Amino acid sequence: MIDRSQVEDVISNITDPYLEQNYVEAGAVNSIEIDDQSITVKLTLPYAAEFFGGGVQQLLQSGLSSEFDEHRVEVVVDWKVEAQKTANNLPGLKGVKNIIAVASGKGGVGKSTTSANLALALKHEGARVGLLDADIYGPSQGLMLGVADGVRPEVQDEKFFLPIEAHGLQVMSMAFLVTENTPMVWRGPMVSGALQQLLTQTLWDDLDYLVIDLPPGTGDIQLTLSQKVPVTAAVIVTTPQDLALLDAKKGIEMFRKVNVPVLGVIENMSTHICTKCGHEEPIFGEGGGDRIAKEFGTSLIGELPLSLSIREKADAGSPHVADDPESPIAMMYIDIARRAMARLAQQNQAQEEMPIIQMSDD
Ligand SMILES: Nc1ncnc2c1ncn2[C@@H]1O[C@H](COP(=O)(O)OP(=O)(O)OP(=O)(O)O)[C@@H](O)[C@H]1O
């Protein structure tokens, strides 16, 4: 009779590319049932994996079937996103399991485009996702997600906003509340107050992830927001130029200072792909994102090319992942989303593994 440890041995030879752990050490094995004729393994991945889960199932199925060829092997893979601890143990937000803040050291690096595509990529894998445009100085998510001009969120009980649905995301933006005729002059404290109101007075409906597109920069506003908003973790968007990298470093340092875990760095406009011949060239230099990530003890979770279609699709209100989810560029965003989800899922694990420092009086 086969015993459980033999089955676990086979499973522990298979490493999840996003968790970078095998499925036994990742704690993903739910149950193993063995009898004379059959082996049934149930796995629960800690990140949304509507598509990727199928590949994992096949890998395990073939691995186990070839090892135990006298048995009928059945592998079932599902997924569940758990709420992770919030940074600084702030009370979480109703209806939201995890908040991912997307930040950049400076403006114009593609933070908003990346946030939109990242949110859509999380949704593509089956997660329930919200997107909060906190880029109060230049809110662009409404346009990018094709929300028609003049659309306003419904108000419930004279107190709560219902987020606007766009491409399957629950979206909220200050741009939905003001008109071109009522421009706002924001001062620091007003920004964080308004943003907190947007966050807490929106009725988010059972979200696995809320992506927050933060205002660019690493000044007081961003610092206050990172301390007051119950974020789970942050990602930093940068471009490969030296100056942008320098600012990205400041971003990482800022989150460190306020104890917000950084899931990693996304390098945008990494290379240029020629629309005529398809040749790919690193016009802004190579490997910068990777270097700063390593220098600051985090990692590069993805690179995106400078691509005309990324800009065109975003400008047209239908970002790449929504418009062409099977394309190589959409796959890059989806890959980044999976890596971010996997890192996030490992937050509590990492915290649990941290040594507890005992203080004594003597
Ligand atoms: N990978 C890319 N390839 C081509 N164009 C891109 C890419 N990423 C973003 N863009 C374009 O670059 C411009 C700036 O992008 P975006 O608004 O997302 O930047 P941002 O960092 O959010 O800017 P800000 O901080 O000023 O709000 C947009 O026109 C967008 O379509």
From TrEMBL:
Residues 5-52 form the MIP18 family-like domain. Pfam families: FeS_assembly_P, ParA. Signal peptide: none annotated. ATP binds at G105, K106, G107, G108, V109, G110, K111, S112. It comes from the Bacteria. Transmembrane segments: none annotated. Keywords: ATP-binding, Hydrolase, Iron, Iron-sulfur, Metal-binding, Nucleotide-binding. In the C-terminal section; belongs to the Mrp/NBP35 ATP-binding proteins family. In the N-terminal section; belongs to the MIP18 family. NCBIfam families: PRK11670.1. Homodimer. Binds and transfers iron-sulfur (Fe-S) clusters to target apoproteins. Can hydrolyze ATP. This is Iron-sulfur cluster carrier protein. It comes from Litoribrevibacter euphylliae.
